[in-house]
Amino acid sequence: MPAFIQITDTHIVEKGQLVCGTSDTNAALHTAVRSINRLLPSLGPVDCAIVTGDLTDNGGAAQYAHFAEIMAGLDVPWLAIPGNHDDRETMRRAFAVQGWMPPSGPIQWLRDFGPFAVLGLDSLLEEAHHGALSPPALSFLDKQLSTLADKPLVVATHHPWMQCGIAEMDADNLRNGAALMERLERYPGPARMISGHVHRAITGQVGRVLCQIAPSTCHAVHRDHRTDAVHSLVLAPGAVTLYTWCDGDQPGLISDILSLEDMSKPVPFN
C-alpha cells in the first residue's frame, strides 16, 4: 500500500525567531519530525513526505538551511513545491542536489507511486500572496496528463482553488484555478487536488474533483466571520495528512489527519 505524508506551511525562520512574535514554527517542525518518526512503524510503508509550500516565512537562505537541518532528521525522503512565502531561486539553490529539483523554471515534478501519481505544481507569483499557474506550469501539466492515461492522479499546489470561507484567504487563492479544473474535469482517471496556504483541514468538491486543504504543522488561520474580526493567526495543535492507497473491493486513495500531539497509549477494545 504506497503512501505519502503531506506537510505544509512550516514557515521556518532563523533560529531563535518567532513568526508574528508568537508562533514557534521551528519547534513545531521539530515536533512534526519526531512525531512522524514515532508513528511510522504503525503506519506501514510510507514512501515520502510532500511539503506543499511556505517552507520558510520569507524565503531567506538561512531559513532554507534551517529547514533542511530540521528535515534531515525525518526518516523518509521529502520533496517540495514553493508557496507565496518562499523565494523560488533561493529555494532552488538550497535544494539543488535534490533529484526532484528542476534546474530552471517552475519548481514542479511528477512522483509515480505505482497505482497513483502525484503531480506537484508551482503556483508562486513573486511579490504576491495569491497564486497562479504560469504558462510553463500549464504546459508541464498538459504533458503529464497526456502520458498518465487514466491513472489516479493527485495534483499538489500551495494555493487552493476551492474557497475555504475565510474571505482574506479566498482572495489570495489560485487565481487561474479554473484552467486547472477544466483539465482535471477532462482527465479520464480519478483526480483530486491537495493544497496548503490556509493552515486548516478543509475538504470540498469542485465538479468531480475532490479538493483538500491540509492543516499546518504550526499555527492556523483564525476562522472568525464577525464583521469586525481582524485577520489573525491562532496557535493550534499541529497536524500532517497521511495519504494511503488501499487495495481490495474499493481500491483508492484515503486520507487521515495525524495530530502531532503526544497521544495516550492504545488500549485494546474489550
Count of structural domains: 1
Structural classification: alpha/beta
Order of helices and strands: EHEHEHEEHEHHEEEEEEE
The helicity comes to: 10-25%
What's the shape?
Answer: globular
Number of strands: 13
Annotated CATH topology? Purple Acid Phosphatase, chain A, domain 2
Strand content: 15-25%
For the biggest β-sheet, the strand order reads 4-5-6-7-9-8
- End-to-end Cα distance: 29 Å
Radius of gyration: 18 Å
* Low-confidence segments: none
Considering the protein shown, what is the CATH homologous superfamily? Metallo-dependent phosphatases
List keywords for this structure.
single chain; 270 residues; alpha/beta; Purple Acid Phosphatase, chain A, domain 2; six-stranded mixed beta sheet; five-stranded mixed beta sheet; 6 helices; 13 strands; 23% strand
